[in-house]
Amino acid sequence: MRIEEMNREPEMLYAGHNACPGCGAALAVRYLTKALGANLALVLTASCWSIITGMPPLTALKCPILHCPFPSAGSVGSGVRRGLNVKGMHDTTVVVLAGDGGTFDIGLQALSGAAQRNEDYIFVCYDNEAYMNTGMQTSSATPFGARTNTAPYPLFKEGQKKDIMRIMAAHSVPYAATATVAFPEDLENKLKKAQEIRGFRFIHILSPCPPGWGTESSDTIHLSRLAVSTGFFPLYEIINGVSWKMTCQPEGKRTPLKDYLSSQRRFKQMEDIRVDALQEEVDHDWEMLMERIAASKGCE
Predict the structure, then answer these.
(1) Residue 120 and residue 186: Cα distance in Å, rounded?
(2) Which 3 state secondary structure label does DSSP give 57?
(3) Which residues lie closer than 8 Å to 35 by C-beta, 6 or more apart?
(4) How far apart are CA 233 and CA 296, in angstroms?
(5) Domains of the chain and CATH, by start
(6) Residue 7 has pLDDT above 70, yes or no
(7) pTM here?
């Protein structure tokens, strides 16, 4: 679906919601609901989006919404799917929407269980790389070197960002993919593809957070593009845990990671030695991804 066609799709997100200006997560869910259509049931765990949408009956979305506790989104999604099946509503698409806290950390156990059981719904993680709704604390999705309110200057996040996509691949789920709002056609295509597949599907969307990242609200799309062009957040999909495919290849040589880091206050005053260390990490992960993609082509 092209962007012009996407814009003609009915809006499922009301204007005047509670998201911050430039919120990547709000734009991601706008595209998500346009792609999946009105026959949609949404499970929301504690996150920015549980505030953005508000409480029923005054919600920001034109679809049924069920709020659930932080650790239980994966389990609640399973119950909603099975309940709808009992009622004969097999065509209703069930989506579990969680932030990185409800996916990488607090929600990982229920997520893993649902993936292992191959529950028939789409789990969407909008990843703003910290616990933004509760004060911008570090999560295991926070990248190395970033500052949060639990790692103030001169402290910074130690250790690598958890590789949630490899965790999903290890569960051999039918479909997993990464996406950003800077490439809406790619995001829409992946959501449409996921909707046609049965079993557990996982979509990981990088979602810049202006107040948490220390950026201007107008920079959300630019930052999302830089994340892809630097290789910091490559766009790819995984089928059944074994077939890896790049969906948006950066043109020419990848952009230096410093261009991406320098536009965010959370990386302000990051020492060159740490910038180089993070660049090495990104380069290593990129090479590993290319090897997996090449190996997948060899098995076709």
Answers:
(1) 22
(2) coil
(3) 1, 6, 9, 187, 188, 191, 192, 195
(4) 20
(5) 3-298 (3.40.50.970)
(6) no
(7) 0.94
